[in-house]
């Protein structure tokens, strides 16, 4: 019986073999993460009304400041004003969430497929019968983070003689969260 995913992964392993080990694996994952984030941000700009979202964000911020001021000063008049606007603020928060989720929903399935392919690419099978194996180290952080945060071992990486070796999942999350915020600000889709 044919295994299309297995055949594809065999081809992928041959074509992208240079990106399987550090330092090229780190650069490859960084490029993939930046591409995904850029594509997602472009979709956000294209399919969302950023002016309206920014206006809503300013209104929410103003409402939160008024709420803090009402709580701090115990001003009943201001507290009533805050309470009257609460339903409106909740409505625009829901609308903002909907607007921000639309582009994400369009790309969700392709991103999951890409993530599964990369996860399989950076997984080493030790026992072909059971499929048991371990995650491959794709980048090494040159300090021993596992001594300060031991719970990261096995979850985001493993200790190595040169520092902390990050697996695909850990390094992708580190790069995605770090570069994602920067790219959002550069592309003007950050609401903060």
Structural features, described:
The chain has 192 residues and is mainly alpha-helical. The protein has one domain (18-187). It has six helices and five strands; from the N terminus they run ααααβββαββα. α2 packs across α4. The N and C termini lie far apart (52 Å).
How are the SSEs ordered, and which strands pair?
Layout: H1 4-15, H2 24-47, H3 50-73, H4 76-121, E1 123-127, E2 132-135, E3 137-141, H5 145-148, E4 157-160, E5 163-167, H6 168-187
Antiparallel strand pairs: 1-2, 3-5, 4-5
Helix pairs in contact: 2-4, 2-6, 3-4
Low-confidence stretches: none
Mean pLDDT score, rounded?
89
Number of helices: 6
Number of domains in the coordinates? 1
- How much helical structure, as a percent, in the residues? 55-70%
Q: Shape, please? A: elongated
Main pleated-sheet profile: 3 strands, antiparallel
Arrangement of strands in the largest sheet: 3-5-4
Which percent range describes the beta-strand content? 5-15%
Helix vs. strand class: mainly alpha
The whole-angstrom Rg is 23 Å
Number of strands: 5
H/E series = HHHHEEEHEEH
- Alpha-carbon distance between the two ends: 52 Å
In short, what is this structure?
The chain has helices at 4-15, 24-47, 50-73, 76-121, 145-148, 168-187; strands at 123-127, 132-135, 137-141, 157-160, 163-167. With 192 residues, the protein is mostly helical.
